[in-house]
Write a structure and sequence with these properties.
The structure holds three protein chains of three kinds.
Chain A (H helix, E strand, L loop, with lengths): L1 H34 L7 H16 L14 H23 L4 H21 L1 H4 L19 H28 L1 H11 L1 H6 L4 H27 L9 H14 L4 H25 L5 H22 L17
Chain B lengths: L7 E8 L8 E8 L4 E5 L6 H9 L4 E8 L2 E2 L5 H7 L1 E4 L11 H9 L4 H14 L1 H5 L10 H13 L5 E5 L7 H16 L3 E5 L3 H7 L2 E6 L2 E7 H5 L2 H7 L11
Chain C lengths: L2 H27 L6 H22 L14 H29 L5 H23 L14 E4 L2 E3 L1 H23 L1 H11 L1 H6 L4 H26 L11 H11 L4 H22 L4 H15 L10
Antiparallel strand pairs in C: 1-2
Helix pairs in contact in C: 1-5, 1-6, 1-8, 1-9, 1-10, 2-3, 2-4, 2-8, 3-4, 3-8, 5-6, 5-8, 6-8, 9-10, 9-11, 10-11
Classes of the chains: A mainly alpha, B alpha/beta, C mainly alpha.
């Protein structure tokens, strides 16, 4: 009997791990967009920066890419946050004083260039072959997928839980209130002596750091990364998760991530199971069409998402 | 010429950009053909919103606007000029990146094709300074000339009424004199003029009648000279304007 | 190295055709349309489909004219495709963008355009698979055209066509009422309304024009390189960079910006290799945003 459960447990926990990683990216995006009104169209790029930073710092020496520092995993994760956060801060400082959608275009460019560098700077990043042998947490359990997945699930759930709680505190804090005030009415906030640019850069950097962390976590869980993991498809998926769940709302971000990931996985299974192999790629494309339409529809009809933002700043004044 | 009804009639107009937060709170004014009417009042009184609402550029939530006997309350802004009602906004009232000629040709687009060339030529004849600079991008005109272009643009279609939002804004007193003298000429030719003004002295010197708008409602009205010589009104709303024997 | 001039010009002109549409919709509607790249891809695929239809019906219409690889079928098809792409742009505006105008945050429209672009791209992938395809199998040989430069007959023909298109656009914008209306609406919508311009009709005209030009760019790109679902998307960054470099709302600026980026890309390919092409647009973008965000023709927004 137990043998029959192992497969599903392994699969379910794998699913949840990925859902939680996505949720973490989504939480970062929520901080940037939901709380601060900043439009990051290059999410995948920042995730990639975190993933590669952590990977290159923690892998053993290799001919195919830079690195070989073989540093501990935790260090890698922290470095991922720092690198992604720094990149976000730089991009933010550069563009946030300009029109709102210059940030969109610039972050889009970041994602393109990060993918480009990952793909072509072979000596640095391993090129199309990516980086392998990334140290995995609970590696000793690697032989039993169910246990390995469960252990990592526990770890990641703790991380996401801590981040979630921290973000909720942040949202209710004076800093968070100023941020939302800036989002709603910049001039009023300025009249109160708050510099919008500084708050925005901080929010953007923090959000970016979370995305980098998520990238690192996923990299270490899977043990292998390649440029093709970080395409606009990823950015698009995360945005859909945020829109569906409700932007401005951390819980919504997590639930949206779970929901959209579930939809994605189920449709993927359906395609693999029901559709003849030669047609699979085309069916996968159809899936993206559906998600694209879903995104556009949600924006038109339910811009607040399924859960939506809880009231305004004043509610948190209690 | 007498009419049964004034050229432009605004009744109990309620208008504002946010639903439920009207800036104009039930204002009623009217303008006859050939007369100059000024709308004055303190800052925030809703003068600018009133004139924009009449022009179709601010949302109207109540009341009615009748022009030349026709209900134009819901008429889209770009049809107003075809109905004979022209509007010159305050700042940014010419297309700076287009040439003087382009600005006028664009306005002529509201006319039937056969009439365009004639009206453009007539406008250049009436504004020779502009004719001389027709190739220049409008943004390179001086302040006074820009105002003239804005007015010329509005007049090109031979409107029955002309509305202006603070035509004196940003102009030196001498230029204001010149622009206002022009407006007087235009009124003499039978066009009704409605202007919103912050420069109450010059406005009352020019206008036949005036309204004072306070908090979106009409508070006072009367012949311009009477209002100008009423010290109480001047002190309360018009920043203590004194007009000595207002010349006209 | 002189080949850089030819390659740079071709690149620049191609990017220019797309950038004109981007800068106009950006300045009039106030948002960066991420779906613009898909107009390019759609135009190429539509031309491909219609051309095969034509060549099935009209025997011999798929033969390249003279030394060109371009056939009458492709020419006729590309004209039809321009109209169809204009229609796609109009449909997208009608279904999606117009519903979000004025009501929601400007950034929602950008997001919606991002979603629409993914949907259209995936639809193309669904219909045609992601395998690259070509208008014709003819191989083009570069011939000397003087000044030590070499160009293929296709390149010469397409440059001429593109030049004609651009002159046409210039005349449209400067000599016609609708063109004046576009420039006016791009500068100041409220004033345009006061001046009697039907802004909604003008916006529709801008979409149609942008779509048609993007389609032409797609056909050119398909003829010069190849046709694949990501062809337009990969041009997005250069398109935006060109529009911003030139100054949003300025058509001559967008074209100048496109040429600069085109030459920049060609030089980079020569010096560092083709794979680094896309980085140029990004670097130029960053430089513009640091040095002079309003761009060459810089109109403050």
């Amino acid at each position: 009997m137990t043998f029959d459960l192992v497969g599903p447990i392994a699969y379910a926990s794998f699913f949840l791990v990925i859902a939680l990683v996505n949720a973490l990216v989504c939480l970062g995006l929520n901080l940037q967009w939901g709380q601060s009104g900043l439009f990051n169209v290059g999410v995948a790029g920042f995730v990639a920066i975190g993933a590669y930073a952590s990977a290159l710092l923690t892998t053993p020496p290799s001919d195919s890419h830079l690195g070989g520092f073989a540093l501990p995993i935790a260090f890698g994760w922290l470095a991922a946050m720092a690198c992604a956060g720094l990149a976000s801060a730089v991009i933010g400082a550069l563009t946030l004083r300009l029109r709102a959608d210059y940030l969109a275009i610039t972050t889009f460019g970041v994602a393109v260039v990060v993918q480009l560098v990952a793909l072509n700077a072979q000596k640095l990043t391993g090129g199309a072959f990516g980086v392998a042998f990334i140290p995995r947490p609970f590696d000793s359990l690697g032989a039993t997928p169910a246990l390995y997945n469960l252990a990592n699930l526990g770890l990641i759930a703790v991380v996401v839980g801590v981040v979630y709680l921290a973000l909720e505190r942040l949202v209710r804090s004076p800093w968070g209130r100023v941020l939302r005030a800036i989002r709603e009415d910049e001039r009023a906030a300025m009249a109160l002596g708050k510099s919008p640019a500084r708050y925005r850069v901080e929010a953007f950097a923090l959000g970016g750091a979370l995305m980098g962390l998520a990238g690192a976590i996923a990299a270490h869980f899977i043990g292998f990364i390649a440029p093709e993991n970080y395409t606009s498809s990823l950015t698009f998926q995360v945005w859909t998760m945020l829109i569906v769940g409700g932007s401005g709302n951390n819980l919504g971000a997590i639930i949206g991530a779970g929901l959209v990931w579930a939809l994605w996985t189920v449709s993927g299974l359906a395609i693999a199971g029901l559709v003849p192999a030669s047609f699979e790629a085309r069916a996968a494309a159809l899936r993206i069409v559906a998600i694209g339409v879903l995104l556009a529809t949600m924006i038109i009809f339910r811009p607040r998402g399924l859960i939506g933002e809880k009231a305004t700043v004043s509610r948190h004044l209690d | 010429m007498s009419r049964e009804q004034p050229l432009l009639v605004v009744e109990n107009l309620v208008a504002g950009y946010e639903p439920g937060l009207p800036i104009v709170n039930g204002a009623s004014i009217h303008v006859e053909a050939g007369e100059i009417v000024a709308v004055l009042g303190p800052n925030g009184a809703g003068k600018s919103t009133l004139i924009k609402a009449i022009a179709g550029l601010a949302p109207i939530s109540g009341g009615a606007v009748t022009f030349d006997g026709r209900d134009v309350t819901r008429l889209p802004a770009h049809r107003m000029i075809r109905a004979g009602l022209a509007f010159t906004p305050q700042t940014e009232n010419v297309f700076a990146s287009l040439s003087v000629d382009d600005n006028l040709q664009l306005a002529a687009g509201a006319l039937a094709k056969a009439l365009r060339a004639g009206r453009v030529a007539a406008t250049y004849a009436a504004f020779p300074d502009l004719a001389r600079q027709r190739r220049l991008p409008a943004g390179r005109l001086s302040g006074g000339q820009r105002q003239m272009l804005a007015i010329a643009r509005a007049l090109l279609v031979a409107p029955k009424a002309l509305m202006l939002d603070e035509p004196s804004a940003g102009l030196s007193p001498k230029l204001v004199e010149m622009v206002f003298a022009r407006l007087a000429d235009i009124a003499r030719s039978g066009v009704g003029i409605l202007l919103v003004e912050q420069n109450t002295r010059a406005a009352l010197a020019l206008a036949d009648r005036a309204y004072v708008l306070v908090q979106g409602r009409r508070r006072h009205e009367g012949p311009a000279r009477a209002l100008a010589n009423d010290p109480m009104i001047a002190a309360l709303y018009l920043g203590g304007v004194e007009i000595e024997g207002a010349p006209r | 190295m002189t080949q850089v001039l030819v390659d740079g010009l071709m690149s620049g002109v191609l990017i220019g055709l797309g950038a004109i549409g981007v800068t106009l919709t950006y300045s009039i509607l106030g948002f960066a349309n991420f779906a613009h790249g898909e107009f390019i891809s759609f135009g190429a695929y539509a031309t491909l489909m219609i051309a095969s239809g034509i060549s099935a019906l009209v025997v011999g219409s798929d033969q390249g004219i003279g030394a060109l690889s371009i056939s009458p079928a492709v020419i006729a098809a590309s004209l039809l495709a321009m109209a169809l792409t204009a229609g796609l742009a109009l449909a997208l505006d009608w279904i999606l963008f117009s519903r979000l105008r004025g009501k929601s945050a400007a950034i929602s429209v950008v997001m919606a355009s991002f979603g629409a672009s993914m949907a259209i791209r995936a639809a193309l992938e669904f219909a045609f698979t992601s395998r690259p395809t070509y208008f014709s199998r003819d191989l083009e040989i570069a011939r000397p055209i003087g000044l030590g430069l070499k160009a293929t007959p296709d390149q010469i023909a397409l440059i001429t066509v593109a030049a004609a298109l651009l002159i046409g656009v210039h005349l449209l914008l400067t000599r016609t009422q609708i063109g004046r209306a576009m420039r006016a609406v791009s500068e100041n919508q409220a004033l345009a309304r006061a001046a009697g311009v039907d802004v909604d009709a003008t916006i529709r005209a801008v979409w149609a024009l942008g779509g048609a030009l993007a389609s032409a760019a797609g056909v050119m790109l398909g003829l010069l390189v190849q046709i694949r679902p990501f062809m337009g998307f990969d041009l997005l960054l250069p398109l935006f960079a060109a529009a911003i470099l030139g100054g949003i709302g300025s058509v001559p600026g967008a074209f100048a910006g496109a040429l600069i980026i085109g030459f920049g890309e060609a030089i980079t390919v020569e010096l560092a290799g083709a794979e680094w092409r896309a980085a140029v647009a990004f670097l130029i973008l960053i430089a513009v945003l640091i040095i002079r965000p309003t761009g060459l023709a810089g109109r403050p927004t």
